[in-house]
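protien #1 (seq + structre)
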Amino acid sequence: MSIRYIDRQKELLPVIRHLETTDQIAVDLEFDRNRYRYGFNLCLIQIFDGEDCHLVDPLSDDIRTQDLFPVFEDPDIEKVAFAFQEDHRLLHYIGCKPKNIYDLRIASQLLNHPPASLTNIIEDLLDVHMGKSSQDSNWFKRPLKKNQIVYAAKDVLHLFDLKKSLLKSVNGSEILDWIEEENRNWDHVSYDGSDINNYIKEKDKKDLSEVEWHVFKALMNYREEIAKSSNRPSYQIFSKKLIYKIVENPEAVKNWTDEKGIFRRIKNRRYQSILQKIISEAEQEAESLGLSQSKPARKSPSSEEMKKIHQRKQKIQKAKEEFFIPIKEKISDDYGEEVSTFLFSNRTVAEIVTGSNGSLETYKQKLLDRYASDLNLDKNKFIG
């Protein structure tokens, strides 16, 4: 077994040709999401084919990352991974729609293992010491350090063995079918990218007035423009805490050049003037829109809305107590507590009861039907 670092297209092409002939690969990605640079960026691709570990450098000018996409998108090649959600989101973001993913975190929880990191579950089940994590290191820096290379390789080198270890304890095909159905869901998930750099959130409203919220958004948008053009994370331009300070007291911008934590390039009178103009224009626009200096930006629900919220909570609580808790207790007895929690978490139960979860997996529907029958519970009374 070898670990090969690939940063040249001529080295990648024969690897791709070989991977196209396999039926199973282990996959992981290293990425940066607004930590060291702006945006959501792929920094390294790790692939293990059972014999060799290939570390493909997508930051190399001589690598065409998209040439790997057909391998990831081939439904006849199983992609074994662990906790693949963010990797999956990133691949969609860069234009790759992977198929046939086998997520071992899903498998582990359906086999009654408690939620755990890859490092911990490998050490527990395989007795392999994974060493010190390099997850939070700067994956943009080149050349990569030896410990980064080792860490990245270990993230895929043990996935096949971990899969074997997990599945050897399975009795019968029922749980294997559950794992299969859960993992097939990956083929139907699609991300549109709208939440990749969602930098303004509802919770940011806090106690701001309508006008203050309008100014806040204008300053956040400007910070984002600078971050993007400078290829720096937004928090490194100036802090959200400083934005709140300026929004609540616009005069505070006069101390711009004396404030701490401001990106050095913009810590000058020119940018102070730009910010003052942005604030002034935002305030004028807020006035033209009829926004209030006193009314809160975060609207309290009306009495009718509060009534509906209360009714919804009551409906969910009643369903939990009279239907889901008895069923979950039986599932815990038959399959284990971790399985019960994975199948019907509080969030999942709320989504089922309110009909906001879309289509429930077939195996979960069958489980509900089976246990409702065993316990003489009326499913239709709680699930519309």
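ok now protien #2
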Amino acid sequence: MPLQRVIRCKGVLILIKKIALGVVAAASVMLLAGCASNAAAPTPSASKTSDIDVTARAALPADIRSSGVLRIATDATYAPNEFMDSHNTPIGWEVELVKAMAKRLGLKPVVTQVTFDDIFNQINSNQQDMGVSSFFDTKARQASVDMVDYYRAGTQWGQRKGSNVDPNNACGLTVAVQKDSYQFDTDLPARNAACKKDGRAAIRIKPYNTQDAANEAVEFGQASAFIADSPVTQFSVLQSSGTFVTAGEVYDTYLYGMPVKKGSQLSKAITLALQGLIEHDTYRQILASWGVQEGALGEITLNQGK
């Protein structure tokens, strides 16, 4: 059965997008979360609703506090982190986390589907207050937004079952990847520089607007492998009914960061609210309910990505 007949998100066909830390050994656990497929989607956690955090709410910018709304941009095509359910509503462990955070701030969360490469623009033009879309916190991204760090994830490759792709020997292969991701901007270009230095053929990089499209390219033989955040790759393998397997181990772990406008007080409010979720154990409950607790942090930080 073609993979797109198995996984459907956003009312359309979807495969997967980004994910978490060195959790290869826990693949079957890490991957339990998911896209709305023919199998039942994970049940969101039954974590207790925390009271409003007065200190965190006081740290909010006045206009956001008075509006009563927290506008959150996401590219919901990256199960199990964020994806669309059968009602075209964003769900996933990151969506659940920011909704719990908004409750601690006394705000109504409004999560809006935005293309991945436009999220920073919408934040900086005041169309959205913040984003959550499995962003690796990097120094380059910190130049345009502040990143509230809340999770740790890595990179992993996926391939068709029966293939023999070695990520460390990929010169000359065709690799599918989502545009504007860390893997597209940094990982694959660095590998191509090494191929050139060794006098070998470059990796043929095939960029796509969504990770699901990148995965489809591998499914239908248009690319040898796809590359994404480790939890996303592992989840796509789990949901593929044997079509995909992983290629190599998880590497290059990074912090996930929630982008907010540079210098905004909102970053402090978010940091305090998320830390409160950790202290009330709500954070752990949400991650565990989606099977992604391996990447949990004990402390929420700001702009600590490398």
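Residues 155-251 form a domain with the D-Maltodextrin-Binding Protein; domain 2 fold (CATH 3.40.190.10).
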